[in-house]
Amino acid sequence: MRPFFVDTLEQVLPRMNMTEQNTRGLAGVVAAETGLSFIDGAEGRLWYRGFDVHALAKHASYLESVYLLWYDALPAAIELSAFEGTLARQRALPPAVLDALRCLPADAAPMAALRTAVSALGQVDPEADDISHEADLRKAGRLVAQLPTIVATFDRFRRDLDLVDPDPELDHAANFLYMLSGTRPSETAARALDTSWLLYLEHGLNASTFTTRVVASTLADMHSAITAGISALKGPLHGGANEKAMEMLLEIGTAGSVPSFVDTALEQKQKIMGFGHRVYRTEDPRATHLRRMAEELSLEAGDSRWYDVSRRLEVEMFERKGLHCNVDFYCATVYYSLGLAIDLFTPLFAVGRTAGWAAHVMEQHMHNKLIRPRAEYTGELDRPWVPIDRR
Ligand code: ACO
Fold this sequence. Notes:
By secondary structure, the chain is mostly helical. Helix content is about 55%, strand content about 5%. The chain contains 17 helices and 3 strands. The protein has a 3-stranded antiparallel sheet with strand order 1-2-3. Helix 5 packs antiparallel against helix 6, helix 7 (about 135-160) runs parallel beside helix 8 (about 170-180) and helix 9 packs across helix 17. The protein is globular and about 70 Å long. The two termini are about 30 Å apart. The structure holds acetyl coenzyme *A. Acetyl coenzyme *A binds next to helix 16.
């Protein structure tokens, strides 16, 4: 018998075929293959299925881009209208999910309500555990159709208002605004929301998408993966930043107060929400469109206050830290200009991103390999066992 011995980590690691490389936050690590999107962080460019996001934001609708992502082809007019029609007919929520939403406290965070409702949808979905590609596509369609209804339903429950039934005549974004407010939105408002969803649709292996792929890689189902994606999106370093950015703009108040706000924040080593990015080293191409939309909506409303504060902050951050704003920064002003409650901003990011997460779940299910990295162990080995009465 070998005597009791103590190994050092240096002895153990080679036996376990482990390298000691550790990239904090997996920065720069390539952890999956994807045909869905490509980001050129140095040049500030983004493509969905090979199509430049600038061209899509200019010419395409959100659902047209979802079709592109899921079927790897731009839809013909007849295909797009069939796709939109199928989704429009699936907007209503099952009674069990309505009950679950009704039971939540009115002060629950809408992002938490969304997480709960998507999980509940998985409980009643007839194909919940079928992970064939065909079933995944159908479930993805139902989720994209139903997520806006969840957000509008929860918001109306908490405001003690009657629910507004989805209107199949209205397109995806216009219908959401209608269910939320009870009135038909202007074309500008619906278009702005639709484009924001298009810009939020897909963005490589960000934290929430990586999360959905890890869940899918265990061969868990679509609803489990999307629920996990929502959880990862919630934090302020990711999707939660659009809400925090708006709270910060309100706190700053006027363009003239920006320099002193930045002085204090940087002095206290605080992060300015909506700035910086793990991949982009130049302008985030999505921010270009959101900045333009924020300006247009401000001009239309005849009140450029929040756009002016945002613009001043953007200039200040670039001059002082060389940092560009990301997708969440101007989205805050866009959503605020649309009169949306601030705590709906991140749920609306999730509404747009769900189709992207679903595309990754399908890609993972089709070419699966369990995602299971290693951690760099920093503790001790072979500590002597001490019986409980002698500790
Ligand atoms: N405000 C102030 N300083 C910043 C900011 C910021 N928003 N972002 C980065 N920096 C600074 C850091 O302090 C750090 O400086 P140092 O090297 O002097 O310490 C340097 O830039 C690198 O920052 P990290 O946080 O290490 O960069 P990382 O790639 O890990 O983080 C992240 C990227 C999380 C987006 C970061 O920029 C951040 O926290 N931004 C604010 C939150 C935000 O807007 N999140 C939304 C991102 S987009 C999205 O998820 C959809």
